[in-house]
């Protein structure tokens, strides 16, 4: 058989990064002339919402829900960032149409590089999985979830993870 093990790696999504692992840093375009990196957001919790595509019905519903829940995320001091393999101009049009109040980052070229690092790239379709990562202020993944592509995962898991991180921080602070 030609290709060997590397071929298999390219035909199947990777294993999503798990809680306790360090979140790989990245810098991706947020607009045609601005990049945002994970390291810039260090010091506060970060929610990474990988999604397959702008303009798809489930993605639109998912990101609209996150937009509505944004004040709750902010209550925990968390920043939300959406990431897909769409380009910055597509993101700009989509975010404007949906009135989104959080950045959408373009994992466009090299296509899906950040999604690959997080183990959530689907090479056969050229898209990211519908995956969520909650990262603590130190850059450690505290919760992750991969949802079926056709299913909006909602925000409850994210809110529970943020609540758990807050409780853990209070318990650690009380013990010190």
TrEMBL record:
SUPFAM superfamilies from the UniProt entry: Thioredoxin-like (SSF52833)
Annotated region (Disordered), positions in chain: 1-30
Alphabetical list of Pfam families matching this protein: AhpC-TSA
Matches recorded under PROSITE patterns: THIOREDOXIN_2 (PS51352)
Highest taxon listed in the record's lineage: Bacteria
Enzyme Commission number(s) from the entry: 1.11.1.26
Domain Thioredoxin, residue spans: 17-167
Protein keywords: Antioxidant, Oxidoreductase, Peroxidase, Redox-active center
Catalysed conversion reaction: a hydroperoxide + NADH + H(+) = an alcohol + NAD(+) + H2O
Quaternary structure (record): Homodimer; disulfide-linked, upon oxidation. 5 homodimers assemble to form a ring-like decamer.
PANTHER family: ALKYL HYDROPEROXIDE REDUCTASE C (PTHR10681:SF121), THIOREDOXIN PEROXIDASE (PTHR10681)
UniProt-recorded name of the protein: Alkyl hydroperoxide reductase C
